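Example S7 (structure tokens).
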């Protein structure tokens, strides 16, 4: 690892990545590589947890390609020096900001959307002119292997390389000095990464998880609310960091919601055969999910199979904030319902917990929508929809508090992997003696006026 990082530093110091045309060539090469190997990528992810080509292309490959296309189109603009106004004190002169790459970056991925989560930050890092060591999650072994194979066969390892492995390999990487660490994963491991980065004062971006509430506040468009919510919850069998974790609903709407939700789940025919469902990633996670079930609270589903690693879409009713299912991020196909009589009291409850990564509000009532948007802090979200905010590359994607530090996507990703160097360039035309000896009351008065 030491040798690899030394070589990457040497490559970075050669200044090749500072050239914007070089970056564009590499991004194009990356795009073609994804295009040429899509079949291979689809096969590997199917092997790991039976994800369909449809979901892999729509939720992963196409989204990475969209990031690449945007970066190719905009990287020249994003990298430009930006002139800013110069203050009166510094007159005459000019001020500008130079974006510069941070250097050698480490990107650590999670397993649930293994391609998108590993490769979208890579696009940002390369566009910003960094070198990259990528460490994908080891849990989906085939996807990790195929990413290593196609990338390591195509790119100079001194510029962009994949290191496969689990905890030991990640620890070994984290003991080295990087100029940037970008981590996606659990809050528990995020803390470990943050501590390791602190040793070298390396800047981090931490994309972590949390419990994402979904408010259903009226029944005006209940059918469409439910359709969007059920799709978002059970996509990837609930193994989505921004999936609605649980539903908050006024008591009087609950019955109607449950009926509509069950009807929608049945209508969607979630299964591997229908290409719209996946396995739970490991048996350990099946066990973890099964421990969150309370039999008497299940109103739909609840069955699972350890061997096939299939967990049925499940709805739990009469859930309270004290139940086991509310003590951790579910990250699976269980949808708990919490009914409430007072919106203020549930808002208070959410605010007393860790800040969510996402929040969803289904309502046609503008005041209620604004109340929730104003009062609850969370990473990002949607009104009358769920998940889809992630697809808009004009918005930053990231958490807040325990759900994340920093953000990416589009230009926000470029900024995440850049340092903005502020430069003031003084004119040599004349020199005022305001700041020099002797200090007089008149000079002090003038300087004070200039600060105003
Ligand atoms: P994880 O934290 O277990 O693993 C993430 C990465 O860290 C993996 O590459 C793994 O090899 C490494 N790792 C694991 N244990 C480690 C240790 N002790 N020391 C050093 N490295 C270690 O997370 P996961 O199970 O892969 O992913 C699920 C979590 O990721 C969920 O909490 C989910 O919400 C979150 N997630 C967040 C986003 C986001 O964009 N915010 C996206 C996807 C997943």
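Recovered sequence:
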């Amino acid at each position: 690892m030491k040798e690899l990082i030394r070589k990457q530093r040497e490559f970075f110091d050669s200044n090749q990545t500072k050239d914007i045309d070089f970056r564009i060539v590499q991004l194009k090469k990356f795009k073609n590589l994804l295009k040429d190997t899509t079949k291979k990528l689809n096969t590997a992810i199917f092997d790991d947890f039976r994800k369909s080509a449809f979901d892999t292309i729509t939720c992963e490959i196409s989204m990475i390609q969209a990031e690449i296309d945007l970066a190719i189109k905009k990287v020249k603009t994003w990298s430009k020096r930006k002139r800013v106004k110069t203050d009166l004190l510094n007159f005459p002169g000019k001020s500008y900001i130079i974006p510069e790459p941070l250097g050698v970056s480490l990107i650590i991925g999670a397993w649930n959307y293994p391609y998108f989560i590993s490769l979208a930050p890579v696009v940002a890092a390369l566009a910003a002119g960094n070198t990259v060591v990528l460490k994908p999650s080891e849990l989906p072994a085939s996807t990790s292997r195929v990413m290593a194979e196609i990338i390591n066969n195509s790119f100079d390892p001194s510029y962009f390389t994949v290191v496969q492995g689990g905890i030991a390999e990640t620890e070994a990487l984290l003991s080295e000095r990087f100029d940037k660490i970008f981590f996606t994963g659990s809050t528990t491991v995020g803390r470990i990464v943050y501590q390791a980065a602190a040793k070298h004062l390396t800047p981090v971006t931490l994309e972590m998880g949390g419990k994402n509430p979904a408010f259903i506040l009226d029944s005006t468009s209940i059918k469409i609310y439910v359709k969007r919510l059920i799709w978002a919850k059970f996509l990837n069998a609930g193994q989505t960091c921004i999936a609605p974790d649980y539903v908050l609903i006024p008591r009087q709407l609950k019955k109607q919601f449950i009926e509509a939700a069950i009807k929608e789940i049945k209508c969607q025919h979630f299964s591997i055969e229908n290409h719209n469902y996946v396995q739970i990633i490991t048996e350990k996670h099946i066990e973890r999910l099964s421990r969150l079930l309370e039999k008497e609270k299940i109103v739909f589903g609840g069955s699972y199979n350890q061997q096939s690693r299939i967990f049925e879409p499940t709805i739990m009713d009469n859930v309270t904030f004290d139940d086991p299912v509310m003590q951790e991020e579910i990250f699976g196909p269980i949808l708990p319902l919490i009914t409430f009589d007072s919106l203020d009291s549930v808002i208070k409850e959410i605010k007393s917990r860790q800040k969510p990564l996402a929040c969803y509000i289904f309502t046609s009532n503008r005041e209620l929508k604004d109340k929730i948007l104003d009062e609850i802090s969370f990473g990002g979200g949607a009104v009358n929809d769920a998940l889809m905010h992630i697809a808009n590359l004009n918005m930053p994607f990231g958490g807040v508090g325990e759900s994340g530090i920093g953000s990416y996507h589009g230009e926000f990703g470029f900024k995440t992997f850049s340092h903005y160097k502020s430069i003031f360039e003084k004119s040599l035309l004349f020199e005022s003696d305001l700041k020099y000896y002797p200090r007089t009351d008149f000079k002090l008065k003038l300087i004070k006026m200039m600060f105003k």
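Notes on this example. Residues 301 and 314 are 4 Å apart (CA to CA).
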